[in-house]
Amino acid sequence: MTRHSTLRVALTSIPLLAAAVTIAFWGRSAAEPALVAAIRRGTLTATLTTSGTLKPIQSITYRSPLAGRETEIVELVGEGTRVREGDLLVRFDTTDLERDIARAKQEVAQARMDLVVAEIERKEAEAAVKGVAEGEGALAVEEAKTRLQLAEKKVDRLREEHDQLKPLLDNGFITREELKKTVDELEQAEEDLALAKKRADVVIGLNHPRDTQHAALQLAQRESQLENTRIRALEADARLQLLLAQLEHCRVVARRPGLVVYEEFLNANPRRKVRVGDRVSASQGVITIPEVNRMLLEASVSEAEVHRVHAGQAASIRVEAFPGEMVSGTVARVGTLARASADRPFDEKRFDLIIDVAPTDLELRPEMTARGDITVGTRANVLLAPVNAVFDDKGVTVVHVRRGGAVETRAVRVGEGNDTAAEILSGVAEGDELMLTAPAAPVTAGGSPRPISAPGPGPEVAAVAPKSR
Asked: 384: closest CA among 339, 424, 335?
């Protein structure tokens, strides 16, 4: 293809009315005024025509919110319904879910009670630690130390008294029995001191460290138990909240407006679309909502024409389902790599083309066939001829010029074009009258066949080869 493919499409797509006029022409004179058009100068808006299908800019598929279980569809909006944001789409059965929620609430209540008990036990363990450090344990240590000090003082006092009485016995001031009594008391005091030391060693060096360690261990166990109980309570509460959220999500509403399309039910054989009463899992799509208010036209452009198209160009879109209606659009993206048909690898390569469709009141639907006319340029003060006055004659682009009573066939060079007009680069002059239908053979004024004239001077442009009219 060349950059004139738009003109080629226009030339090869003859309207029915033009065909009827052509048929009627064969019974009329070559000079019929209605079948003649003059070459004129004007401005040409060049377009490139492509066709494709409409696609939604976004689609949302809705599924069951209950992961890991099947649930029954109890209510379903009608397929083809146009819904708004917030409209009910599908409602799932919640019987099993409500039963699970009741059990989860019991688990939460029990977990909270266990949490209270664990907190009390932790406080008791803290009190035990404090008791060992500052209460009964500390008091026992102080008592042992005090008894030891008293015993030591008593022994010292009795020893001092014994030492004082012994000289008195030697001088005859006291009797031996009085000294013996002091000796006995000293011996008893020393025995009490030895026992007090042992008791102090046991209380301070053995019992108190053991009680302190035991209390600390009990506190650590209670704190760990409290933390585990707290985690179980949080997990139970989170599970309950999840089930409550799933219960709420069993009533599925539309997150965006669009058109309701049912998904195929994968468990059915043969395949069919979902319906009320089906049991579905979270992996089974139920409804897809294509956002039909924002559509794209997916088309393609030939390798020879891709240089003429770029993002931002305006386009006029005609949808086959709405003849006579036109929607504006804008080229959004042109493919980076060319692709060829898988079953026809030697055919012309094409580039993907995406056109944004402007919002419209037409009820557009996905997969509708549409044609896009992309404005690729404007040519000012050029020679213009109607597209149905330009013909292909064995690979040569020609026009049939009326001169007086004769018709002269000339080869021409064409430039840009659109659905109605073609730019003539050479071969004719302004004011020349062109036939809108082809004669049976090139003729002169005398009626004898005449060869095709060569085009006049003009820029070298590849000729378009439209089909003969």
From this structure: 424
Q: Are 289 and 299 in contact (CB under 8 A)?
A: no
Q: Which CATH number fits domain 60-92+252-290: 2.120.10.30, 2.40.50.100, 2.40.280.10, 3.40.50.300?
A: 2.40.50.100
How much is the CA Rg of the chain, to the nearest whole Å?
53
Q: Are strands 59-63 and 285-290 parallel, antiparallel or unpaired?
A: antiparallel
pTM value surpassing 0.85: no
344 Cα distance to chain centroid? 35
For tokens 């086959």, the residue is: 320
DSSP calls for 387-448: GGG-EEETTEEEEEEEETTEEEEEE-EEEEE-SSEEEEEES--TT-EEESS--SS-B-TTS-
Q: What is the CATH architecture assignment of 5-57+294-435?
A: Beta Barrel (2.40)
- Looking at 15-135, list the stretches that DSSP marks H as alpha helix, in order from N- to C-terminal side: 16-25, 95-134
Nearest to 32 by CA among 460, 433, 366: 433
pLDDT tens across 334-359, in order?
998 888 766 666 677 889 999 999 99
CB-count burial class (<10 Å; 0-12, 13-18, 19+) for 467 = exposed
- Dist CA 65 CA 93 (whole Å): 11
Nearest 5°: CA angle at 285, between 279 and 286?
65
| In the predicted structure, residue 440 carries a pLDDT above the cut 50 | yes
pLDDT the model gives residue 346: 67
Which of these ranges, 31-45, 220-234, 437-451, has the smallest mean pLDDT? 437-451
* Domain definitions of the chain by residue range: 5-57+294-435, 60-92+252-290, 97-249
User: How many C-beta neighbours within 10 Å does residue 417 have?
Assistant: 29
The β-bridge partners of 259 are 82
User: In one letter, which amino acid is 358?
Assistant: A
What's the pLDDT tens digit per position in 40-53?
999 888 888 899 99
Half-sphere exposure of 142 (CA within 13 A, CB side): 8
Least confident of 20-34, 131-145, 363-377, 455-469: 455-469
The CATH label, of 3.40.50.720, 1.10.290.10, 3.30.420.40, 1.10.287.620, for the domain at 97-249 is 1.10.287.620
